[in-house]
Amino acid sequence: MAESWIKVADEGALSDGRALPVYPRGLGMLLVRAGGAVYAIANRCAHMACPLEGGACEAFIITCPCHDWRFDVRTGAFVEAPEIAVPTYPVRVTDGEVFVHL
Ligand code: FES
Description:
Blueprint: E1 5-10, E2 20-22, E3 29-34, E4 37-42, E5 57-58, E6 61-63, E7 70-72, E8 88-89, E9 91-94, E10 97-101
Antiparallel strand pairs: 1-10, 2-3, 3-4, 4-8, 5-6, 6-7, 9-10
This protein binds FE2/S2 (inorganic) cluster.
């Protein structure tokens, strides 16, 4: 399948401190607004694959609701051991619409 930018949300649906689940091409990911930018991170923890959805978001960190592993939404890195990470995806915001690149 060709790579492309896919619209996943209106920017107005995002709020600081709350991750928004989206499913472009059936792929579960979360949109997180932090520091004035929008990030997309896989909705699947690198520990035991729990959905990250519902985890607390503080600044650039989302905490898995299952066992509290923390990930940086900018890079997907596990804060305590950055060699472990979950996938992240490029995001573009244009005219109030949020796109991810797949
Ligand atoms: S499944 Fe996320 S911390 Fe265990």
